[in-house]
Amino acid sequence: MSPNTTGPAAFGRKRREPVSLHADSLVSAEPLLPTTATPLLLRATVEGVNLRAWTEENREAIRGHLLKHGAVLFRGFSGLREVSDFEHVISCIGGGDLLRYSYASTPRTQVSGGVYTSTEYPADQEIPLHNEMAYARQWPMKLGFYSVTAAQEGGETPLADSRRIFQRIPADIRDRFVSRNVMYVRNYGEGLDLSWQEVFDTTEQSAVEEFCHRSGIEFEWKRGGGLRTRQVCQAALAHPVTGDQVWFNQAHLFHVSSLAENVRSSLLAAFAEEDLPRNAYYGDGSPIDPADLETIRQVLREEEIAFPWQSGDIAVVENMLVAHGRRPFKGPRRVVVGMAEPFDGPSV
Predict the structure, then answer these.
(1) pTM
(2) Sequence-ordered alpha helix ranges (H) in 181-310
(3) What is the C-alpha to C-alpha distance for residues 293 and 100, in angstroms, rounded to an integer?
(4) Regarding predicted confidence, which is higher, 34 or 102?
(5) Is 243 strand, coil or helix?
(6) DSSP assigned state of 33
């Protein structure tokens, strides 16, 4: 085990044991780490096991493992010559074509079809743990990450079990969020964040308005062609298959307190609070205590599970059960992403 491998302390868990995957002698299955069941490592035990073909034959078993472990890591397989091979694997597991990255929150570039670059933030920046598109009312249930080129140093994609996060957030904080939900306020057009054209993948205001009406998003066109949106979304909910309660929001990322103090001070000096590029409130518009958000961030940090990428690895995540992030890195790094199996969350 690499000395860089980290994870949360055992939480009433059994020691690592092999996991049955039919009677397949070509692939071994066991948790990657000794202290946590996430992720499950599926490793080819002989050369030449084609991941595309193996995934097609074992799709239901893989989906079952995702519901139990939250994430699986494929390692040592063959047949990954093109990004299209990765796309085929994720679409097979997800049961349909990969999704477009619409109503975006971070900068990405389309690589091919439904495959995108991972978030294009500078290499020295950390991306905190989050569940994909938990700031919206529709999100992908499956995420795929393909490590085309592993970084020389760092660049891990840490994971965390959203069920444990829900359990570990203090009850008074958790209850406030669950009863009041989260409102996300975004302002586009000031040159400090993504433009509305990038976020909504259109240059037509009418298309934006149609999307907002359909998605329960309040919108307001501002002078100079800017746009402000507000949407109230869930703070936590039950997984539709397992019934597990999970923490599922991005208040800790959108809230102005997530910014470095100097950046936050500069923005608040330049903009009224309602004009900040992004911010988060309770669903009724009342402020969220930054101390509560810092408590949540601390729980996320304590639950983080990290392991080094190897070139050729593919990780698949059950998005509602497991959060993900990115650690800073040095040297070339290329990880591409695919999203599958759209799910409509509750109206709140």
Answers:
(1) 0.90
(2) 196-200, 205-215, 251-254, 261-270, 290-303
(3) 30
(4) 34
(5) coil
(6) S
